[in-house]
């Protein structure tokens, strides 16, 4: 059986890689029990460093929308060059609250 693929960066998620579930609509915005996707932890961290819960619920509740956000698109280009199990602190500044 092959490793699952992270829908954000399209790299495999090896069993020993840090990973987590991302609710496409945040739980705090009505997404509890809704669709969730398995992501690398670093990809998940970048989503939440970039977008507020309200932005996620309003405009970025699909993988396609997330992949087209300018900062996330730049991140995807960067992370695509890293090995599947790569983990580091989230690069770049966190979003303004």
Task: Describe the protein in words.
The protein has a domain of about 60 residues. Helix 1 packs antiparallel against helix 4. The N and C termini lie far apart (about 40 Å). It has about 100 residues and is an alpha+beta fold. The protein has a two-stranded antiparallel sheet with strand order 1-2. The chain is built from four helices and two strands. The mean pLDDT is about 90.
Which helices and strands occur, and which strands form pairs?
Layout: E1 19-23, E2 36-40, H1 41-50, H2 53-58, H3 63-68, H4 70-79
Antiparallel strand pairs: 1-2
Helix pairs in contact: 1-4
Organism: Thalassovita litoralis
Protein name: HNH endonuclease
Keywords:
4 helices; single chain; alpha+beta; 2 strands; two-stranded antiparallel sheet; globular; 97 residues
Order of helices and strands: EEHHHH
| Secondary-structure class | alpha+beta
What summary fits the major beta sheet?
Answer: 2 strands, antiparallel
Q: Count of helices?
A: 4
Task: Give me the count of strands.
Answer: 2
The 3D shape can be described as: globular
Give the DSSP E fraction (strand runs of 2 or more residues): 5-15%
Report the C-alpha radius of gyration, rounded.
13 Å
Give the terminus-to-terminus CA distance.
Answer: 42 Å
Strand order of the largest sheet: 1-2
| Parts with pLDDT < 50 across at least 5 consecutive residues | none
Approximate helicity band: 25-40%
Protein name: HNH endonuclease
């Amino acid at each position: 059986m092959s490793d699952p693929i992270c829908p954000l960066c399209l790299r495999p998620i090896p069993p020993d890689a840090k990973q987590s579930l991302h609710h496409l609509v945040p739980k705090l915005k009505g997404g509890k029990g809704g669709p969730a996707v398995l992501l690398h932890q670093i990809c998940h961290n970048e989503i939440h460093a970039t977008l507020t819960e309200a932005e996620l619920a309003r405009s970025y509740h699909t993988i396609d929308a997330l992949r087209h956000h300018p900062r996330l698109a730049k991140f995807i280009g960067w992370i695509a060059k890293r090995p599947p199990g790569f983990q580091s602190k989230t690069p770049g500044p966190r979003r303004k609250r």
